[in-house]
């Protein structure tokens, strides 16, 4: 009998029963006032006169009127760079002890996002809330005695002056509570290995020593790790190594595109729980099993705003136009795509995190990530968002019984000077490219009226090529880094797509 697990499960059940749902609108107003009050004497707070905003009759409206939108480039150029010049009290009191490195989905240059002690506490508190929500899932007592594989970036943070730098998963893992370290795998020593392939090799060699009950990490890299463990031990699926694996906590991207290929690595079904941990904070988690939607954490140091995701409000670089309207959490509508803005205890203000979301349940404040502001294909009026593309690719998987965990698409002119959408689909399964092109085109026409109109005018057609899924990992390795928080861009402009096709040619010539 799992006595210790039963005790933990009981404690979680008791905590959840005494935790009531707060009013999100009130919680969010309280968060905003707290943020403004704590930062009012910073350089940023003085510049935008936070003290006056706090005296306004409508604090949320006054905040939106006075403080402009910021993407990373704008806030770093105007404010955050001062931290690296020795300034303090810039956008948050004091000096951040950490900077999260994030190349996101574009570019080789890492962003350096401040992570304060308040943010470390916020992320830890969100994790505790997520653990409490496990009481809603039908998990046996012995699950709470198993180990958890957290596949993030290296915890060997780099010392830079008065702070340390690393990816947010590495920063978070380096700050795990002492009582959790016995459950945490791959453990401190392996987690410090910076080189992804070397770290995965060590995980594979040690895998049989662990009793893993849960996995946590970005789907694409989790798949790659599981494949290496399976290959190393010459077994058919991961449950032959970890028979008690019952939960996978996904995060960072929508899980659906990876679902079919991920399930192929399992010996039996696992409970998938979605989370939303970004370099800028822990924003949401799935709190109940009957949905893949995630509850926004509205009482934990992050203030949310929402801008309707419409072409008129989005600049080509993914930033927002100055006149883009903002909507508070009280006025959102279900099933409408929004650009997400956050203000945080790390001194991000009205910050465009780069993701688009939709509310699936307004009352419960549950959301789904629908894409990226830069992953929006609208060169010839097709207005395709990533969630529409993901849905279409899933239809291909079902129609042809194949797995397509990764893809990339771009709009460019063909040899006839007409515009086409060029797709590269990552699959190990045999498939006819012409049939895939036709089916993909039809799926997108049925799902998106703007795409259908474009196909009757400026968009000539769809051209598909299938490639080895590992090619996407190699592209990331060549351009950014393997593992951690790195995500594959789904949509490329013509310039980046030319680099991608040149990379494929060079890869082909080497093989």
Structural summary, described in words:
- The chain is an alpha/beta fold and about 500 residues long.
- It has two domains: about 375 residues, ANL, N-terminal domain (Rossmann fold, 3-Layer(aba) Sandwich), CATH 3.40.50.12780; about 140 residues, no CATH class.
- It has an eleven-stranded mixed sheet, sandwiched between helices. A four-stranded mixed sheet has the order 2-1-5-4. Strands 18-19-20 form a three-stranded mixed sheet.
- Strand 8, helix 12 and strand 9 form a beta-alpha-beta unit.
- Helix 10 crosses helix 11, helix 13 crosses helix 14 and helix 14 crosses helix 15.
- The N and C termini lie far apart (about 55 Å).
- About 45% of the residues are buried.
- The N terminus is likely disordered.
Q: What attributes does this structure have?
A:
511 residues, Rossmann fold, alpha/beta, 17 helices, 36% helix, four-stranded mixed sheet, eleven-stranded mixed sheet, 20 strands
Main β sheet profile = 11 strands, mixed
CATH architecture of the largest domain: 3-Layer(aba) Sandwich
Give helix % range: 25-40%
Secondary-structure-based class equals alpha/beta
- Beta-strand portion reads 15-25%
Oligomeric state of the chains present here: single chain
Rg is: 23 Å
CATH structural class of the largest domain = Alpha Beta
Average pLDDT reading: 85
Question: SSE layout and pairings?
Answer:
Blueprint: H1 3-17, H2 24-39, H3 43-47, H4 50-55, H5 59-66, H6 72-78, E1 98-102, E2 111-115, H7 117-133, E3 147-150, E4 158-160, E5 163-166, H8 168-174, E6 184-185, H9 188-191, H10 196-206, E7 212-217, H11 219-233, E8 247-251, H12 256-263, E9 271-278, E10 281-285, E11 294-296, E12 302-308, E13 337-344, E14 351-361, E15 366-372, E16 376-377, E17 384-385, H13 386-400, E18 406-413, E19 419-426, H14 433-447, H15 449-455, E20 459-467, H16 470-479, H17 494-510
Parallel strand pairs: 1-5, 3-6, 3-7, 7-8, 8-9, 19-20
Antiparallel strand pairs: 1-2, 4-5, 9-10, 10-11, 11-15, 12-13, 13-14, 14-15, 16-17, 18-19
